[in-house]
Amino acid sequence: MTTATRTAAGPAGRPAARTAVRRYPVLVALAIAALFMVVPFLIVAVNAVKSPAEYSADGPLSLPDGLYLDGLKDFWERVEFGQKLVNSFLISGAVAVLAVVLSVLNAYAIGIGRIKGRTWVLAFFVLANVLPQEALVYPLYYLSKEAGLYDTRLSVIIVFTVIQAAFGTYLLSAVLGRFPREIIEAARIDGANRWQVLWRIVVPVSRPTLGVLLVFFFIWTWNEFLLPLVMLISNDNQTVSVALGVLQGQRLMDATMTNAAALLGVLPAIVFFLVFQRTLTRGIAVGAVK
Asked: ABC transmembrane type-1 domain: from which residue to which, for each copy (predicted)?
């Protein structure tokens, strides 16, 4: 009986062993990818707290003898980083929320409402996604001048809300196009109108996907450089990325301050990502299950 049990258990156990063996290359590849992403950030963080003398003597890969914070302090004061931080959070947060709301409204009309010319409308949004920002610089500059919005944070919020909502609309239209029609019909039989169906049924069910879009829109807008550089010329309205680029162009920073600037520029986005990491993971997992 023991031999028979082993014989029966042997073939059944082999697939599990093979699956476990196949996972090792994937884990190794993920570990290598994580190193490629984490190591540059650690090098920047180490050099940000290193004195210029240590950097010149020992190079960028050496550990500092102590914490040298003058580079962080000098950069913060030189570019008025606190104001730039407020501008970036205000613009990125407003764009993320407004773009999600606009995407939901558009996708509800396209995916569930089934408006006429749905294919052509989706093609328009796809075109908006692939259109390079360099092609938008002069039209947006001219329109903002004519509208009296040039060099205002509102102009950048409007532009990026439309740009990000184009991608959000395209994505959500595909998601809402597969939304269970039985749920919507049941809600309408119970007397719910279109707005009630949207805000009480569609939005709660789609909340994980909307959370993913919110995180992506915030980070994408935070990292934008070209359009804010053109649209925001005054020091009081500039974002973090623009301040970093302008100061680098003036060649006023040494290696330590350059690393301090890079650290301060990327750290808020990383913190935001870590805070909403559970929302992002949940949204991706729900999308995979669906």
From this structure: 85-276
Q: How far apart, in whole angstroms, are the C-alpha atoms of residue 227 and residue 218?
A: 16
**CATH topology assigned to domain 80-252:** MetI-like fold (1.10.3720)
- Per-residue pLDDT tens over the stretch 198-240: 888 889 888 888 988 998 999 999 999 999 999 998 989 999 9
The span from the CA of 126 to the CA of 285, in Å, is: 25
CA pair distance 133, 207, nearest whole angstrom: 30
CA 258, 263, 268, 272 dihedral sign is positive
Task: Name the nearest CA neighbour of 175 among 206, 154, 204, 198.
Answer: 206
Q: Which two tokens stand for residue 229?
A: 């550089």
Backbone angles phi, psi at 227, to 5 degrees: -65, -45
With CA atoms as reference, report the closest residue to 60 among 69, 72, 51.
51
What is the C-alpha end-to-end distance of the chain, expressed in Å? 45
Amino acid code (one letter) for 247: L
Residue 126: how many CB atoms within 10 A of its CB? 14
- The structure tokens 């973090």 sit at 240
- From the CB of residue 221, how many other CB atoms can be counted at a distance below 10 Å? 26
Q: Where are the domains of the chain?
A: 2-58, 80-252
Cβ of 165: how many Cβ atoms within 10 Å? 26
Tokens of 35: 């190193």
pLDDT digits 0-9 by tens, 54-105:
888 888 888 888 888 888 888 888 888 899 999 999 999 999 999 999 999 9
Q: Which two tokens stand for residue 163?
A: 């740009």
pTM of the model: 0.83
Q: Rounded to an integer, what distance in angstroms lies between the CA atom of residue 68 and that of residue 52?
A: 9
CA–CA separation, 123 and 138 (whole Å): 24
Helix (H) or strand (E) holding 289: helix 277-289
Cβ atoms of 70 and 84 within 8 Å: the answer is no
